[in-house]
Amino acid sequence: MNAPLYNQQILRLAASVPPERLTAPMAVVEKRSPVCGSRVTVDVDVDASGRVSAIGLLVRACALGQASSALMAAHAPGLTATELAAAQGALTAWLAGEGPVPDWPGIEVFGPALPHRARHASIRLAFEAVAEAAAIAVVQAASPQ
Hints:
There is one protein chain. With 145 residues, this protein is of the alpha+beta class. The chain has helices at residues 8-14, 63-75, 81-95, 117-142, and strands at 27-32, 39-46, 52-60. The chain has four helices and three strands.
Protein backbone atom coordinates (compact mmCIF):
# COMPACT_ATOMS: atom_id res chain seq x y z
CA MET A 1 0.00 0.00 0.00
CA ASN A 2 1.32 3.44 -0.91
CA ALA A 3 1.57 6.11 1.77
CA PRO A 4 -0.14 9.42 0.97
CA LEU A 5 2.17 12.07 -0.47
CA TYR A 6 0.86 14.86 1.75
CA ASN A 7 0.59 13.04 5.06
CA GLN A 8 0.14 14.44 8.54
CA GLN A 9 3.90 14.51 9.23
CA ILE A 10 4.57 16.51 6.05
CA LEU A 11 1.79 18.96 6.83
CA ARG A 12 2.98 19.38 10.43
CA LEU A 13 6.52 20.09 9.25
CA ALA A 14 5.27 22.47 6.56
CA ALA A 15 3.49 24.48 9.23
CA SER A 16 6.67 24.74 11.32
CA VAL A 17 8.88 26.68 8.89
CA PRO A 18 10.56 29.45 10.86
CA PRO A 19 9.34 32.71 9.27
CA GLU A 20 12.38 34.83 10.09
CA ARG A 21 14.99 36.30 7.77
CA LEU A 22 18.38 37.45 9.03
CA THR A 23 18.83 41.21 9.07
CA ALA A 24 22.41 41.29 7.73
CA PRO A 25 23.31 37.78 6.52
CA MET A 26 26.75 36.84 5.29
CA ALA A 27 25.14 35.08 2.31
CA VAL A 28 21.72 34.86 0.68
CA VAL A 29 20.77 32.27 -1.94
CA GLU A 30 17.44 31.83 -3.66
CA LYS A 31 16.53 28.62 -5.45
CA ARG A 32 13.48 28.14 -7.64
CA SER A 33 11.99 25.02 -9.16
CA PRO A 34 11.14 25.55 -12.82
CA VAL A 35 8.81 22.54 -12.64
CA CYS A 36 6.42 23.83 -9.99
CA GLY A 37 7.51 27.40 -9.25
CA SER A 38 8.43 26.69 -5.63
CA ARG A 39 10.96 29.19 -4.31
CA VAL A 40 13.18 29.12 -1.22
CA THR A 41 15.46 31.92 -0.06
CA VAL A 42 18.05 31.02 2.59
CA ASP A 43 20.10 33.51 4.63
CA VAL A 44 23.21 32.14 6.36
CA ASP A 45 25.78 33.31 8.86
CA VAL A 46 28.80 31.20 9.78
CA ASP A 47 31.06 31.36 12.80
CA ALA A 48 34.86 31.62 12.84
CA SER A 49 35.20 27.85 12.33
CA GLY A 50 32.98 27.92 9.22
CA ARG A 51 29.96 26.32 10.85
CA VAL A 52 26.47 27.65 10.23
CA SER A 53 25.58 29.86 13.18
CA ALA A 54 22.27 31.32 11.97
CA ILE A 55 19.71 30.63 9.25
CA GLY A 56 16.87 32.75 7.93
CA LEU A 57 14.21 31.60 5.49
CA LEU A 58 11.62 32.84 3.07
CA VAL A 59 9.69 29.89 1.67
CA ARG A 60 7.14 30.12 -1.11
CA ALA A 61 6.64 26.45 -1.88
CA CYS A 62 4.25 23.54 -1.72
CA ALA A 63 3.91 21.55 1.48
CA LEU A 64 6.84 19.31 0.46
CA GLY A 65 9.12 22.30 -0.07
CA GLN A 66 7.98 23.86 3.18
CA ALA A 67 8.51 20.61 5.10
CA SER A 68 11.96 20.14 3.59
CA SER A 69 12.87 23.73 4.50
CA ALA A 70 11.75 23.16 8.08
CA LEU A 71 13.86 19.98 8.37
CA MET A 72 16.87 21.71 6.86
CA ALA A 73 16.57 24.74 9.15
CA ALA A 74 16.18 22.58 12.25
CA HIS A 75 19.37 20.60 11.67
CA ALA A 76 21.77 22.73 9.58
CA PRO A 77 23.09 24.98 12.38
CA GLY A 78 26.48 23.75 13.52
CA LEU A 79 27.30 22.09 10.19
CA THR A 80 29.98 23.14 7.71
CA ALA A 81 29.48 23.96 4.04
CA THR A 82 31.14 20.63 3.19
CA GLU A 83 28.75 18.71 5.44
CA LEU A 84 25.77 20.54 3.96
CA ALA A 85 26.94 19.84 0.41
CA ALA A 86 27.27 16.15 1.32
CA ALA A 87 23.74 16.14 2.77
CA GLN A 88 22.40 17.82 -0.37
CA GLY A 89 24.18 15.25 -2.55
CA ALA A 90 22.86 12.37 -0.46
CA LEU A 91 19.31 13.73 -0.68
CA THR A 92 19.58 14.14 -4.45
CA ALA A 93 20.91 10.59 -4.85
CA TRP A 94 18.19 9.11 -2.62
CA LEU A 95 15.40 10.91 -4.45
CA ALA A 96 16.83 9.66 -7.76
CA GLY A 97 16.88 6.09 -6.44
CA GLU A 98 20.67 6.05 -6.48
CA GLY A 99 21.46 5.99 -2.78
CA PRO A 100 20.28 5.06 0.69
CA VAL A 101 18.13 7.23 2.94
CA PRO A 102 20.34 10.21 3.85
CA ASP A 103 21.67 10.60 7.36
CA TRP A 104 19.47 13.61 8.16
CA PRO A 105 16.97 13.56 11.02
CA GLY A 106 13.40 13.11 9.77
CA ILE A 107 14.24 12.92 6.05
CA GLU A 108 12.50 9.55 5.67
CA VAL A 109 9.20 11.45 5.82
CA PHE A 110 9.73 12.12 2.10
CA GLY A 111 9.72 8.41 1.23
CA PRO A 112 6.19 8.60 -0.26
CA ALA A 113 7.49 11.25 -2.70
CA LEU A 114 10.12 8.96 -4.25
CA PRO A 115 7.90 7.85 -7.18
CA HIS A 116 6.79 11.46 -7.80
CA ARG A 117 9.82 12.83 -9.66
CA ALA A 118 8.10 16.14 -10.40
CA ARG A 119 8.09 16.81 -6.63
CA HIS A 120 11.79 16.13 -6.06
CA ALA A 121 12.96 19.63 -7.05
CA SER A 122 10.80 21.22 -4.37
CA ILE A 123 12.18 18.85 -1.74
CA ARG A 124 15.77 19.62 -2.78
CA LEU A 125 15.47 23.44 -2.89
CA ALA A 126 16.27 24.27 0.75
CA PHE A 127 19.18 21.83 0.85
CA GLU A 128 20.65 23.22 -2.37
CA ALA A 129 20.24 26.80 -1.14
CA VAL A 130 21.76 26.24 2.30
CA ALA A 131 24.77 24.36 0.91
CA GLU A 132 25.46 27.16 -1.56
CA ALA A 133 24.84 29.93 0.98
CA ALA A 134 27.13 28.31 3.55
CA ALA A 135 29.93 28.03 0.97
CA ILE A 136 29.51 31.72 0.06
CA ALA A 137 29.43 32.75 3.73
CA VAL A 138 32.69 30.88 4.41
CA VAL A 139 34.35 32.84 1.60
CA GLN A 140 32.85 36.08 2.95
CA ALA A 141 34.14 35.28 6.45
CA ALA A 142 37.64 34.68 5.09
CA SER A 143 37.70 37.90 3.04
CA PRO A 144 39.27 40.96 4.61
CA GLN A 145 36.58 43.46 5.48
